[in-house]
Amino acid sequence: MQNLKDKVAYITGGSKGIGLGVAKSLLKTGMKVAISGRNWDSLERAETVLDAPNRILLIKSDVSNPKDEQKAVHEVLNKWGQVDLVLANAGLGVFAPIDELSIKDWDAMINTNLSGAFYTLKASVEALKISKGYYITLASLAGTNFFASGTGYNASKFGLVGFTQAAMLDLRKYDIKVSTIMPGSVATHFNNNEPSEKDNWKIQPEDIGDLVVGLLQMNPRTLPSKIEVRPSRPDKK
Fold first, then answer.
1. CA 70/CA 13 separation, integer angstroms
2. Residue 2 domain-assigned?
3. What letter would DSSP give residue 144?
């Protein structure tokens, strides 16, 4: 997939943060990009930021609903006839000690961060077989490193890493590449953060975008299946 012009990407959770950063990078290569999210207003704001008429498709979808994801992939195929890259990026985190974490918040994280990635792949896998495409999940260093008050988030991301690696073994016989990206601190709105100069030391969303472009353009004989990425220097406190 070294020539990316007119290739088609579908990004879940694409209206802000890492998803939006990846969309920007892909559009620079000439790709067409569909972004989904649960909030239509956020999607429209993202469209204005991306400013790529005729190469953007907005889709309202909740990844925790498998029917939504089936509909979303059908919209992409109806619009452009193919899907070459799927980035399962949608995610959320609620952090509390296990004795205080609610069942509702646990279910929300598992259903979005883990089951959502499965629903997205299940909806798109046949199209990816045709395009010999790429499926990427956006995990986290929290997928291998546990921490206090992280039970639900850790469980979802540990699961996502295992799910993605097993899917990689299942799908490479179809020439579908599968990778998981595991970032550390990223300058996004995650966990109620408001990005500002204080976040300059962190990974920026466009850095993950550049990483995704690099994966797509790598020689097809090579597959970096699990990529840890972290700030080169920690915050100076």
1. 15
2. no
3. T
The reply to whether 190 falls in a domain is: yes
237 within domain boundaries: no
User: At a CB cut-off of 8 Å and minimum separation 6, what does 173 contact?
Assistant: none
AA letter at 39:
N
| Bridge partners, 9 (sequence order) | 33, 85
Report if residue 180 sits inside a domain: yes
Buried b (16+ CB within 10 A) or exposed e, 102-138: eeebbebbbbbbbbbbbbbbebbbebbeebebbbbbb
The series of mean pLDDT values per 10 residues for the chain, 237 residues long, is 91 95 97 97 96 95 98 98 98 97 98 98 98 97 95 98 98 98 81 68 90 96 95 78
Which structural domain range is residue 166 located in?
A: 8-229
The two structure tokens encoding residue 179? 């990778």
Q: Report the percent of the chain where pLDDT is more than 90.
A: 86
Q: What is the pLDDT of residue 47?
A: 95
Q: Each residue of 15-32: b (16+ CB within 10 Å) or e?
A: bbbbbbbbbbbbbebebb
For the chain, the residue count is 237
